Task: inverse folding
């Protein structure tokens, strides 16, 4: 692959990308949207070369998931080594050490000074779905509270927890029952027209009001929140927001689920954004 950026076609997209786009339109369902008109051929580090030989700087990284750069040699080597040994046994049928080692390592690095266990899932939405299942089973309660402007995924439950209507929810109802919303800590457009810090974190304290007037804490299994909201508009709460929210949850026997699908693994500079907010 070329090592520097450069455009070699007379326009973008080039002829091969245009051809692939036609094929895509014939064969790929419209629900899978696209952002760019070019198709990748190779990628290294921060560069992507398209099928026509144009090389771009990639500011997307698979939407923030290729944290070590494209085709990081250590990652590629590990994938190859594993592919040579076995690809799939189903851990629940025939176990294997790498699953256990990943869980062990996660338990070491995830915030919280208490013993932990981990479960691995195929996607962010599946992880959130399972957090909801676990919290319901553990608390023997059913209601789940999420934040306005939240994004938690595209499955039925996670789409219900999501607040951004277009494109995620529009036309896809009815939604899952027993999901409620509270205002998010969005200082720039405060729902209460207040200013931090004199607001005394009214948005977090609103949870008490919610328990009194909308849904009793005795019915609420969990509150779920992204430490830094992503799809809702990159909303960073005041640093003490989660301490107050968690304290209210604890006092009422309600769990707090922290969705780090987008903010985790150094995307905010901290390994997990919840370290910054000192919440576990
Ligand atoms: C905060 C958050 N939660 C959940 C998800 C869903 O993850 P996935 O797309 O892997 O299902 C996302 C995806 O962007 C996300 O940003």
Result:
């Amino acid at each position: 692959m070329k090592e520097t950026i450069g455009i070699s076609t007379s326009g973008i997209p080039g002829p091969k990308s245009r051809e692939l786009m036609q094929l895509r339109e014939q064969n790929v369902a419209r629900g899978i949207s696209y952002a760019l008109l070019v198709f990748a051929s190779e990628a290294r580090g921060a560069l992507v070369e398209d099928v026509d030989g144009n090389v771009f700087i990639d500011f997307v990284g698979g939407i923030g998931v290729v944290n070590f750069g494209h085709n990081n040699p250590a990652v590629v080597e590990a994938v190859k080594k594993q592919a040579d040994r076995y690809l799939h046994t189903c851990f629940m049928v025939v176990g294997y050490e790498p699953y256990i080692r990943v869980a062990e390592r996660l338990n070491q690095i995830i915030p919280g000074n208490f013993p932990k266990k981990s479960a691995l899932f195929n996607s962010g939405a599946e992880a959130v779905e399972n957090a909801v299942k676990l919290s319901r089973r553990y608390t023997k309660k059913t209601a789940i509270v999420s934040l306005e402007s939240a994004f938690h995924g595209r499955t039925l439950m996670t789409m219900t927890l999501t607040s951004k209507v277009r494109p995620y929810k529009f036309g896809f109802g009815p939604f899952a029952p027993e999901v409620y919303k509270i205002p998010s800590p969005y200082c720039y457009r405060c729902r209460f027209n207040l200013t931090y810090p004199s607001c005394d974190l009214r948005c977090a304290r609103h949870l008490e009001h919610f328990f009194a007037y909308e849904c009793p804490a005795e019915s609420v299994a969990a509150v779920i929140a992204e430490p830094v909201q992503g799809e809702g508009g990159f909303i960073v709460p005041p640093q003490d927001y989660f301490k107050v929210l968690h304290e209210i949850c604890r006092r009422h026997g309600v769990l707090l689920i922290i969705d780090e699908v987008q903010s985790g693994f150094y995307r905010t500079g901290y390994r997990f954004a919840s370290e910054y907010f000192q919440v576990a």
